[in-house]
TrEMBL record:
Keyword annotations: Cytoplasm, RNA-binding
UniProt source species: Neolewinella lacunae
CDD domains per record: SmpB
InterPro entries for the chain: SmpB, SsrA-bd_prot, SsrA-bd_prot_CS
SUPFAM superfamilies: Small protein B (SmpB)
Gene Ontology cellular component list: cytosol
Gene Ontology molecular function: RNA binding
PANTHER family tied to this protein: SSRA-BINDING PROTEIN, TMRNA-BINDING COMPONENT OF TRANS-TRANSLATION TAGGING COMPLEX
Predominant place of localization: cytoplasm
A Gene Ontology biological process term: trans-translation-dependent protein tagging
Localisation per UniProt entry: Cytoplasm
Family: Belongs to the SmpB family.
Protein name (Swiss-Prot/TrEMBL): SsrA-binding protein
HAMAP family the record matches: SmpB (MF_00023)
Length: 153
């Protein structure tokens, strides 16, 4: 039996734009053609965000491309999808989101060892422009330091 390749999609822009405070792993409700598209690698999390509707959390604007071998029952590419979380976690995060400046962003979509799609969501706070510049400066300094250390080792 052939080993299944690891399927993982990360929203790298989120690390640049936000300060991560907490993360959770959530299940995501998908239709048959959506999971096939995920396995095919047709996913983009860039503009995605999470909202609360009543006592449920939904993820909006996740792009899961159309399944090429699908028929008339193919899925809509950017439809809202329900997230599966425990009630305690939902209530806790709903209270935090009501506070000023907090939001929930999908950070990583992957298939676990059983082939089930999971979405890692993060409670985040927006970075200011000067915070972004400091992050870039720190990363550049680390790269330069690594180069210097490599010369002497």
């Amino acid at each position: 039996m052939a080993k299944q390749k690891k399927t993982e999609f990360v929203n790298r822009k989120a690390r640049h734009d936000y300060t991560f405070l907490e993360t959770l792993e959530a299940g995501i409700v998908l239709s048959g053609t959506e999971i096939k598209s995920i396995r095919g690698g047709h996913v983009n999390l860039r503009d995605a965000y999470c909202i609360f509707q009543g006592s449920e959390m939904w993820v909006r604007s996740v792009f899961i491309g159309e399944y090429k071998q699908g028929n008339i029952h193919n899925h809509e590419e950017r439809q809202p999808r329900k997230l599966l979380l425990k009630k305690q976690e939902l209530k806790k995060w709903q209270r935090k989101v009501k506070e000023k400046g907090f939001t929930i962003v999908p950070y990583r979509l992957y298939l676990n060892e059983r082939g089930i799609a999971k979405l890692e969501i993060a409670l985040v706070q927006g970075k200011k422009t000067y915070d972004k510049r400091e992050t870039i400066k720190a990363r550049d300094n680390k790269v330069q330091l690594d180069r210097v250390m490599k010369k002497f080792n």
